[in-house]
Known about the structure:
Layout: H1 7-10, E1 15-20, E2 23-29, H2 34-45, E3 56-58, E4 62-65, E5 87-88, E6 103-106, E7 119-120, E8 124-127, H3 134-147, H4 156-164, E9 177-183, H5 185-192, E10 208-213
Antiparallel strand pairs: 1-2, 1-10, 2-9, 3-4, 4-8, 5-7, 6-8, 6-9
Amino acid sequence: MAAMLPAVLMAQRQEVLMETTEGDIRIALYDETPLHRDNFLRLVDEHFYDSLLFHRVIRNFMVQGGDPDSRRAEPGQTLGEGDLGYTLEPEFRLPMLYHRRGAVAAAREGDAKNPERRSSASQFYIVWGTTYSSIELDAIDERIIKATGGKANLTPEMRQTYRRMGGAPHLDGQYTVFGEVVEGLDVVDRMQKAFTDDYDRPVDDIRIIRAVRTNNSATKH
């Protein structure tokens, strides 16, 4: 999968290796979203993500993890409400960073409870998505323009990506994308096909064994 950013920029990114029960996923974090980057790295350094589940999986959409309540969750326990007691200011960076396949983004409460669209401190998701026709993208573009008050829309490059590679364009301009999968997209593919219960939790747990930094080439924080 081609990187969302040019190779010369991607080579400088902080990266995290997430070892899971389905295989390894390597994530590059964006310097363009420093609040989310630094928060994610701090949690990785504190081993926060070790032993947490991917507690929400929706086929042809995304896989989500980072709920602290999932560490010792009983089978069938409903998850998704756990967090760390703080939120992050949104860092929308359209059209550079968007919800193409492999994007890593911050989960959040819905607009009714969270009109500022602040991000969860710990919960994140990895986009799988699907491909879209031009007509479908026209309709999604109208919804994005309305949802963002005209501050965001689908560019020709974004449209081409969503038509050929896939993703979740309806989330653009509303959820913060702060990284991308650079290795292990096949692992995400397996995850998003998991059999789930009525609350989208995989029946057979998919667990993060550990998450660690794999380089320190970017500026230290």
